[in-house]
Amino acid sequence: MFFPYGDDQVHGGHRPIVSYTLILANVLAFIWQLGDPAGIGYATTFGAIPAQVVQGDGLHTILTSMFLHGGISHLLGNMLFLWIFADNIEATVGSPVFLLFYALGGAAATIAHVVIDPGSPIPVVGASGAISAVLGAYVVLYPRSRIKTFVFIFPTRIPAIFFLGVWFYMQLSSGMQSLGLASGEGGVAWWAHIGGFAFGLAAGIWMRREYRPGRLRVR
Fold first, then answer.
1. 2 pairs with which residues across the strands?
2. Do the Cβ atoms of 132 and 190 come closer than 8 Å?
3. pLDDT tens for residues 154-195?
4. How far, in Å, CA of 158 to CA of 47, rounded?
């Protein structure tokens, strides 16, 4: 079992304001969700429902769905990955560009899910599509970074290109298996992860050319 808890990249002089604000926004949105007496009303209203999006309805949910979560474990897992991986990218490209990248990555992820399952009446929620874009950009910008990880109970450092490569393989494998499921079944939106990661890879290539991230201090 792999449990990441940090990385060895340290930036000086730049506060990841957007990254931390996104974490706060997701937490506040989840607290707001707890006030939903029906348990799913907010998700139905602000989550992205593929069958509606393809009809041009509720296009705003492509963005609002990124701030809703299906439960506390869903939220905590996503925020952990956002906390580990986002700050380095924000420090490299700057806060305004990172915010735009995050929003476009989340939108690309949601659209990928809609394309794969356009008839689904099930709302998709969660920040994992946008975070997948962050992971894609991270592996391009910092392939030599090491991810601090517990392997069962043993702390170790795993090269980012290996850690994220395994992560993407798991998403792709599960995504391919999900293609045989009937439309409308619940579960994980694997193709949102795949689409977000692909967007992040492409954006990361552009970022590497435009911003040329330098060597970072290791801790």
1. 151
2. no
3. 899 999 999 999 999 999 999 998 886 655 555 789 999 999
4. 35
SS3 content of the chain, % helix, strand, coil (to 5): 60, 10, 30
Provide the 10 A C-beta neighbour count for residue 208.
Answer: 15
> Of 183, 203, 199, which Cα lies nearest the Cα of 124?
183
Sorted by where each begins, the domain ranges of the chain are: 2-218
Report the Cα 56 to chain-centroid distance in Å.
Answer: 24
- Using DSSP, state whether 118 is helix, strand or coil: coil
- Asked if residues 114 and 48 have their Cβ atoms less than 8 Å apart, the reply is yes
Beta-bridge partner residues of 48: 124
Displacement of CA 190 from its chain's centroid (Å)? 11
Q: Is 161 helix (H, G, I), strand (E, B) or coil?
A: helix
Number of Cβ within 10 Å of residue 54's Cβ equals 14
**Fold that domain 2-218 belongs to in CATH:** Rhomboid-like fold (1.20.1540)
The model carries a pTM of 0.91
Q: Is the pLDDT of residue 40 over 70?
A: yes
- The encoded tokens of residue 44 equal 């139905």
φ/ψ (deg, to 5) at 26:
-65, -40
- Residue 128 above 70 pLDDT? yes
95 pLDDT exceeds 90?
yes
Distance between CA atoms of residues 105 and 100, nearest Å: 8
